[in-house]
Amino acid sequence: MYQRDVEKVVNAILDTIADALAQGGRAEIRGFGSFAVKKRDARTGRNPRTGEAVSISEKVVPVFKTGKEMRQRLNATSPKHPRKKVEPAATNINGFVDA
């Protein structure tokens, strides 16, 4: 594919996601994750420089949650560094660990 065609496809996908979020909906890419909007209530914050109270208005922010397949791919064990299997300690009848 040409770079200009790839750019058009990527921009179309991002525009579709942005339009869905702007309408208050959500967008999901199977195996990758989902985009949604979250409402943050108005609150009182502090100016870090002066310490005075500042009123922060209500706002809507985008959030992203990874999909199950993506989390599995990111957290897969590599052959170079396999995870150590931890065996449970043997306990005696009184519940104490045998040395």
From TrEMBL:
Does the keyword field hold Lipoprotein? no
What SMART domains does this protein map onto?
BHL (SM00411)
Report which superkingdom the organism of origin falls in.
Answer: Bacteria
One GO term of the cellular component aspect?
cytosol
Q: Any keyword DNA-binding?
A: yes
Q: Which GO terms describe its molecular function?
A: DNA binding; structural constituent of chromatin
Q: Which UniProt keywords apply?
A: DNA-binding
Assigned protein family: Belongs to the bacterial histone-like protein family.
Q: What is this protein called?
A: Integration host factor subunit beta
